[in-house]
Amino acid sequence: MFRAEIIGCGVGGACAALAMAKVGARVQIYETATRTAEVGGWVTLGPAASTALDQIGLGEKVRAAGFPVVGVSTVDTLTGRTNSFARTEPGHRWSSTHIWRKDLLALLREGLEEVDIPCEYGTRVDPGSRTGDLLVGADGARSATRRMLGDPREPTYTGQSIRYGHCRAVVPGLPTHVLHFWSHPEGVAGYVGDDRDGSFWFSRRSVASGAAVDPEVFLDALRATPVMRVLERSEVSAPIALYELEPEGSWHNADTVLIGDAAHAVSPAAGRGATSAIEDAIVLAKTLRSADSIAAALESYTEVRRPIAQATYRPGPAPKVSAEDLRL
Q1: Burial of 199 (0-12, 13-18, 19+ CB in 10 A)
Q2: Is 50 exposed, middle or buried (CB count within 10 Å of its CB: 0-12, 13-18, 19+)?
Q3: What average pLDDT does this structure show over 16-45?
Q4: Which residues form the FAD-binding domain (predicted)?
Q5: How far, in Å, CA of 92 to CA of 102, rounded?
């Protein structure tokens, strides 16, 4: 048995704790936010994340709390060109699961409590002061653990901002469980709906760094789509600037490792943030179980996960993740 300390109890940190406990670690988590801190927005988990969550016994609960996304429909509003395709893949009951982030975190944290993994909420710790055999930095895009490893980079602004919305009603006439996208010269708008959970939509557009922008311009793109029917009844976020951190620099030393946004923060536009963090957690636990030493495990983890993270930043289809890498 080895002792692991995790900084951060978000999606990646909680998954890492559950996965490492399964391979024999004694785990302690520290989280700067309070237990009741607001966690907004929603996530769409890809098929690999579903496989990974099954490994820690939470796949069925997460799928039940969310809803399946089985297709994609796109419209180029400038040219009128349309496209659609299924998102299911062989070996998966459905390809993606759409879920409130707060519900996902609640299930993960309930899982921690069920197996007696302690988490100290509202606690800020110095990564250099840890006492365990392994330190896992799951402390987000502005990670103190990453700085301790000698990488002083800060996330960079993508040049885009976004607004999110939710309505209890679905949009009449639009198929549910399908991601709908409408691209336009300044960005893209999107929507997915479910009869139980309602409408989830976003509007993302280019905004110069530091520029003042009228929040209403984000909604203009949606007024030209069927989503206009639920706009007035929606709860809408303020504009949120989007940042990212490319997967470069050092991810580990002999006894410290980065996962999730601490290693490779992607813009929400990529739809990979939570999925990647979950995948990182399972791969890390698997390499810790099979390697001869913690140092060797961290090297193997980086060799597996860095190419996947790098592929997210290149144009083209989503990176392919080996199902075998995600089985404990």
Answers
A1: buried
A2: buried
A3: 89
A4: 252-312
A5: 24
Kindly tell me if the per-residue pLDDT of 91 is higher than 70.
no
**How do 42-45 and 3-7 pair as beta strands?**
unpaired
Task: Report the distance separating Cα 120 and Cα 112, nearest Å.
Answer: 12
Question: Could you give the 3-state DSSP secondary structure of residue 102?
Answer: helix
Q: How far apart are CA 319 and CA 313, in angstroms?
A: 10
pLDDT at 90 over 50: no
d(CA 262, CA 142): 7
Give the chain's domains with CATH numbers: 2-67+95-155+245-326 (3.50.50.60), 158-242 (3.30.70)
What's the average model confidence in pLDDT over 119-137? 91
Structural tokens at position 141: 């895009």
E strand or H helix that includes residue 154: none
- What is the value of pTM for the model shown? 0.91
Two tokens, residue 195: 């009869």
Lookup result for tokens 């300390």: 5
Q: What angle do CA 156, 158, 160 make, to 5 degrees?
A: 140
Question: With 60 as the cut, is the pLDDT of residue 58 above it?
Answer: yes
Residues 6+ apart with CB under 8 A from 319: 307, 308, 311, 312
d(CA 58, CA 11): 12
Among candidates 189, 201, 319, which has minimal Cα distance to 266? Answer: 319
Contact yes or no for 273/263 (Cβ under 8 A): no
Least confident range from 17-21, 154-158, 186-190, 268-272: namely 268-272
Residue 154 CA to residue 22 CA, distance in Å, equals 33
Q: Tell me the C-alpha to C-alpha distance, in Å, between residue 102 and each of 10, 42, 60, 99, 204.
A: 10, 8, 17, 8, 22
Query: Three-state DSSP class for 133?
Result: coil
Residue 2 tokens, joined = 């080895």
CB count in 10 Å sphere of residue 226? 14
